[in-house]
Every structure is written in structure tokens, then in C-alpha cells.
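Q: How would the C-alpha cells look for this protein?
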Amino acid sequence: MHLPSQSTAELSLASDWQKSLQQAITDPAELLEILGLSQRWLPAAQQAASQFGLKVPRSYVDRMARGDINDPLLRQVLPIAAELENAQGFLSDPVGDALAKADNGIIQKYQQRALLISTGACGVHCRYCFRRHFPYNDELAAKGRWQQSLQWLAQHRDIQEVILSGGDPLSLTDQKLLPLMQGLAELPHVHTLRLHTRQPIVLPNRVTANLIDTLKRSGKQLVVVLHANHANELDESVANAMEKLHLAGIQLLNQSVLLAHVNNQADALVNLSRRLFAIHVLPYYLHCLDRVQGSAHFEVPESEALALQAAISAQLPGYLVPKLVREEAGKPAKTLVG
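A: Here is the predicted structure in C-alpha cell form.
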């Protein structure tokens, strides 16, 4: 099957997002300079980035406040010295991905659902990423070799929902996604295709008509679970991307991570939920931090998390209050906190 025909404008949009990805900032010195921040932060940033590289699109940096080292968007991506501390109880695989590996590229933690590691690439390197130590090079599916994973899914007819994760599945081009969508279309027992992606938030020009058409080739009900942590991330470019997905009939949800010095204030969480709803996205989960090595400085105590949940529940209608959850290795579902 050939790719759907693309207009010149669509081809230009495709090259735009790929160019934006290629031009992402990877040098801490450049990031500090662009934001007008002191280079005294540089040695620690370079040291931390040597363990887990910096990567952030310029369009995302444009949403940050100049001269503010505590900007909530910057805090999510700037490498700092605290990442190098060996905090007790923080692990390389805090959610038990290795224990739940069912086949090459396939992780199955919950009944009737399977997660496919579609790629190791992301549009942004979030400093609290629970897969920052994940061995992507060991996974054939992450290298674009879907056949073994598709065969496993075909043999397990109890699987009703496939979740594409990574990395970020929308780091793949439409041309690379198409054969995967075609393979999924041949699995009649799979009813829902869910994508976990941050790409439309940090790189909204990734959302094109051709991408939507490619995803629809799966023949499945489509759910896109986004990852935004702060209302400042959701500018008009993101709103425009959400409008395209919404008009295509795709269910849009958001999961956030509760992060110290980013969104651990009731007003920040309330504003996030309201802004999400304004752009057609329903809040889904508010995750307590996955305790991955290098992220201890982001952790919010559970007592504070519960107080925040109570505060936002008092201000928002129930459908805008995300579930406060924790993922625990080996459990049959997310654990509701409180």
C-alpha cells in the first residue's frame, strides 16, 4: 500500500516538524544564553547532561520566561546537580518495566492491554522521565522492526487495546508509522489504539492532516494521551494542534506528573485543568513521581499531594479533577492515592 498523496503544503509541514526536531537545543550553554541566565549554572548542567542528555525544542523554550531560573517549563528540562545524587529508594526501573516484558518490544502490566515500545526517541528530555535508564537498544520494536511485536499481538487475542509508547511514538515519521498502522489493522481483536505522547505539547507542528490520516489507517478507536504539567505549556500553537485532533474525532486525555517547583501549587493545577478543557482535553491522571534515579528533587510528599488534591477538588467540577495515582511495580492497576 502506498502512502496517501500529500499536498505541497503537507510535505512542507512534515519537513517543518522534522527540522524543528533536528534544531532542538542540546547544549546547556546555549539554553542558558537564550534565556539570559547566568553561566554559573553551566558546570552542573553539563555534568548532569553527560548522564542524561539535554534536548528541548526551541518553540518550547519560547514559552519560558527570560531570566527566571525557576520558570516551571525550564525546571522540567534543565539538567542540575541534584540529578547526580544517589537518593535512597530511587531506582533505574521504578515501575517494573523489565519484570513486565512479555516479548521483544512488548510490555504487559494490565489485563487486555499491551504496550509497544515504538521508539527510544523523544522530542524533549524531561529530567524526571521514568524511562531515562531504559535499554532501548535491546528492543527491536524501538528500531522500527515491528513484525515480532505484531506477531505476539496476533497470538494473544485477549488484547483489546494497544498502547504506543517509547520514547515518543510521534517522533516517528508518518512513513515509519504507516506499516505499523497497517499491521494493527489486521488484528480484529484489538479495538483501541492509544498513543502516549508529549510531542503535540512540545512540538505542536507535528500534528498534520497526514499524521491523522496515517493513524486512522489502523482502523481502531483512537485515544491520544498527552503529557502537560503546567498551563504555560499550552499556548495557541498547542491549542491549534488539539483542534485538529479533536475535529478528527480522536479522544484527548492528559496525564501530568506532580513535580516540586513546577506544579505543586493548587492554582497551577486548577489552571492546568481549565486550560486543558478549553482546548478539548480532559485531565486523566495526576501521577505521584515515579522514583527513578536522578529525580528525587522533584518528589512531592504524599501528604502534600493529598492536600493539593483536596484543594483542586473544592475548586473544580469532578470531570476536571484528575485521579491522583501512583504506579507500583507488579500491581494489576494504577494505585489510587488516598
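The first helix runs from residue 8 to 22.

Residues 1-5 have pLDDT under 50 and may be disordered.

Upvote if useful.
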